[in-house]
From TrEMBL:
It comes from the Bacteria. PANTHER family: OS12G0638800 PROTEIN. Residues 3-404 form the RsdA/BaiN/AoA(So)-like Rossmann fold-like domain. This is Aminoacetone oxidase family FAD-binding enzyme.
Amino acid sequence: MRNVVVIGGGCAGQMAAYAAQTAGARVILLEKMPQLGLKMGITGKGRCNLTNAASMEELIRQTPGNGKFLYSAYHTFTNTDLLSLLASWGVKTKVERGGRVFPESDSAQEVRRAFRTALTKAGVEIHTEASVREIHREGTAFEVTTAERTWPAAAVIMTTGGASYPQTGSDGSGHELAKGLGHTLIPLRPSLIPLVCEEAWCKALQGLSLRNVELTLHIDGKAKQTLRGEMLFTHFGVSGPIVLRLSDAASRALQKNKKVTLSLNVKPALAPEVLDARLQRDLEKNHLQQMSNALRDLLPQRLIVPMLQAAGIGSDVKAADLSRSERLRLGQALQNLSLTVTGTRPLREAIVTAGGISTKEVNPKTMESKIVPGIYFAGEILDVHAFTGGYNLQAAFSTGYLAGVSAAGKESEQ
């Protein structure tokens, strides 16, 4: 029976430990925090967005960070396999909008308890508050050392996560252990992260949520991506679903010192001429009103003044006095309001960490290191990241499972 040490008790680590133990290995799971799966407990706003019901091809498409690396992992352990395993543990699931899969209980804690019970029943030896200080290679074997003791291992699975939400244990320390073994670290950056904007009016709109708007990301003046949906103004800039989705490309560009801007279209469903006709009707209807009130049927009250300022129109101007050129400028502002992105929120606040151990140094069919045989990687420690919707957790579970069965000495299914 092979000794396998798993470092990190998050989604990937717990799955790796379970897979290796049930494949015939003797598994020691080391977690630096007092409990397993702390980050699992806060995913999906505490509801735990376990996976997505999408096809394998769609799972790959929704993974902008080295998605193709996951083909073998997704083939070996599918989203259907995950749900079947959870069902066998008594966790019932449901599919919601966008294919997002949650436990029926809407409780991440139920999932955490199910994993802990399954690991215990399988015979995994679990040690919490066990921070790994060193991984020493001794021929073809390893010694994993914490403050308390040293564990011998035929294989080591590293599942220490990224550097987001360090209070849950994923503080980037695992990357340093991997670098010490000779691995290349792709620089870490935040992904799925709110964006910091320069404009004061943007911050003044803190708390205002807009639905059915369109945001276009521009990098060095070139439009790169346009999304329609919901966004939120904050005390530092912008957030919300479409902002988070655009943030990966924005973060990458900012890391390269490129100019990043957003253009906001608050009326994307209207052609410019249709919007102009609507403006004419509203201005005629409210011709005695000041412009700060004349647009209340068209826009949220708090958004009116910033739009007028963008168009160079005073808020105290009467609707009846607005010139044609001013009206056209206002229409342009409504459909092309510019925001200057100066940065992202800190990496510790990111939903996902981009960057990590280079996938070029890991065998995608086994998750074994090409640099140090016997070392395996799974989850967010790798340079793999996806959009929101359950895709990141599925990547963690699938790579964890594949690493587990591979480290146990069983060949993965092809």
